[in-house]
Amino acid sequence: MARGGKSLEIGIFGGTFNPIHYGHLRPAEEVREALGLDQVRFVPLASPAHKSENDIAPAADRLEMVRIALEGHTHFVCDPIEIERGGVSYTVDTLATMLEGACKGHDIFFIIGADAFSLLSTWREPLKLLQMTNFAVTLRGEQNAVEVMDTVETTLIGLDAGVKFNEKKDNTYQYVDSTRVIEFLSIEMLDVSGTMIRELVYSKGSMRNLLPPDVEAFIIRRDLYRSNGSVN
Fold first, then answer.
1. Which range of residues forms the domain containing residue 34?
2. Whole-model pTM above 0.90?
3. Cα–Cα distance between 20 and 156 in angstroms, integer?
4. Where residue 98 sits, what CATH number does that domain have?
5. Cα 44 to Cα 6, 19, 94, distances in angstroms
6. Strand, coil or helix: 212
7. DSSP 172
8. How far apart are CA 5 and CA 134, in angstroms?
9. What is the mean pLDDT of residues 53-81?
10. What is the 3-class SS of 131-166, one letter each residue?
């Protein structure tokens, strides 16, 4: 919650959003409610570091789809920071800019799935990230915080032998060199993905109940994802 009427707690939810769908929106809302976040900022990537641009709709279209999807959501904000900057996106750079801009003076939680968080050691400057932001890590199915943290700690030790995480309470950890926390949250994962939607567009299948109707209309109007389940 807002602290003293000044500092807010803000979730940062980055992604390709290719396209944005209910599998993004519902988990974001569950995390917001569980942590009492005042706001969640959706940050579409400009040029993802680990994906082929041939499979991704134009940045301007993805940004517009996020804006459309978030209309009417009081606590959700579309942040164009990465697309306006352009180029390959690295989380550490984006968060540094946000902490001096839209999120200055506020507490931030970087929202991420457990699978992606387990690969933290492969990110740019992961130890710096652990000092910059809190993490909200979503768990699905049989995933559990202990196993994920064991993996993260083991792989990060290869970068710094002094890496250690302390368990503050169940499902909450703290990096030894930081006051930031890592909160694990079990959420209901919807069986929907961008790949599924792109394939449905290509095969002229129904997208109903997979993404907001206005986003579906935008995809059709812009003729996105019609070439081999990808983009024109």
1. 9-191
2. yes
3. 31
4. 3.40.50.620
5. 27, 10, 11
6. coil
7. E
8. 21
9. 93
10. HHCEEEEEECCCCCHHHHHHHHHHHHCCCCCCCCEE
